[in-house]
Specification:
The structure holds two protein chains of two kinds.
Chain A (H helix, E strand, L loop, with lengths): L1 E6 L5 H10 L6 E8 L8 E8 L1 H18 L2 E9 L1 E3 L4 E9 L2 H17 L3 E7 L2 E5 L3 H8 L3
Parallel strand pairs in A: 1-4
Antiparallel strand pairs in A: 2-6, 3-5, 3-7, 4-6, 7-8
Helix pairs in contact in A: 2-3, 3-4
Chain B lengths: L3 E6 L2 H6 L3 E5 L2 E2 H16 L5 E4 L2 E2 L7 E2 L4 E5 L6
Parallel strand pairs in B: 1-7
Antiparallel strand pairs in B: 1-2, 3-6, 4-5, 4-7
Classes of the chains: A alpha+beta, B alpha+beta.
Chain lengths: 149, 82
């Protein structure tokens, strides 16, 4: 079962995970990661804005899902990413993988998250003290991505 | 046939361009693109970290760009999701 979506409104991950788990009968394990807008250090983050490019972003997420299914022994994959303006504490991303055994589920989530962070068509900026600032992936994000090559 | 190509500026390039998109006469090749977007963005576009998509496909070689009337050319700076 595959559920890949872009959402422009706040979502509650729990409402997605239940039905996703139900849709994969016979699974041995589900691994879920939820990323949220962090408060940040120093001046607090007032909001975060995620922009995307319609012709590439969702097709790119489907391509990522194809690669996850080809690489790991999965039964199902849920990948939901927010776009638009978000406030502190709101979920940005939710990736959940269902498999017969735990390791493929855990690794598939790790794989998808590393790609969503620094190789998917999203641009992120945050507002602190009334000023917007674009965010680029950190060196660490690129190193995480390189682990899968 | 006369027509236009839409150039789409994404992420921080949108701020530099001062607009989300711009219409330019078709056809549009690499040299035409560099001229159309002005020296500041052209300078960035020459760097390998900026990708270019044409008609919904990311170009393996952006300098081989050849956009026809009605097509969209997107300038894609480094991404950050999650």
């Amino acid at each position: 079962m595959r559920d890949i979506r872009l959402l422009d409104r706040m979502f509650i991950p729990g409402t997605l995970i239940g039905p996703f788990t139900q849709a994969n009968p016979g699974l041995g394990g589900v691994c879920t990661f939820v990323g949220e807008v962090r408060h940040g250090e120093g001046e607090p983050v007032e909001s975060l804005e995620l922009t995307h490019y319609e012709p590439l972003t969702l097709p790119g997420m489907h391509d990522l899902a194809d690669r996850a299914f080809a690489r790991f022994d999965l039964m199902g994959l849920l990948m939901v990413h927010r776009i638009g303006e978000l406030r502190t504490g709101e979920p940005i991303v939710c990736v959940s993988a269902a498999a017969r055994h735990r390791r493929p589920a855990i690794e598939a989530v790790d794989f998808c998250m590393d790609h969503l962070k620094s190789a998917a068509w999203f641009w992120k900026r945050e507002r602190r003290g009334g000023q917007w600032r674009w965010i680029e992936p950190r060196e660490e994000d690129y190193r995480d991505l390189a682990r899968w090559r | 046939m006369a027509g236009e190509v839409t150039i789409v500026f994404l992420g921080p390039l949108r701020d530099l361009a001062g607009e989300p998109s711009r219409l330019v006469p078709a056809p549009l090749d690499w040299a035409g693109l560099l001229t159309a977007i002005g020296p500041q963005i052209a300078g960035q576009l020459r760097e390998p970290r900026i990708n270019v998509a044409c008609a919904g496909r990311v170009l393996a070689d952006k300098t081989a760009l050849l956009a026809k009337a009605g097509e969209e050319v997107a300038l894609l700076p480094p991404v950050s999701g999650g």
